[in-house]
Design goal:
single chain, four-stranded antiparallel sheet
Amino acid sequence: MSVPEKCGLGPIEVTAITGGEVEMAAPLTGTGTGYSVSGCSGGGGVSSEGSGGVRLSCGEGPATSINDAMSLKVVKILDTTAVLRIAPVG
């Protein structure tokens, strides 16, 4: 799914839905200054050329803030299907 450019991420891809968690991956599109995730577990890295990616694992619950620019909320998980809500912050 596409996200607003100001978030510093490319399209988010859901890679798995297991154990009450949605696992996602997205490429970084910003200047290589990194990213911040608040509200669910995340990991990843940035290369010296400014490329790289981020992985997220989120369960149902409060919205996650990404780069203080976007909120991502896992609204509902049903077996292998999930409802996600993405919105700009502010």
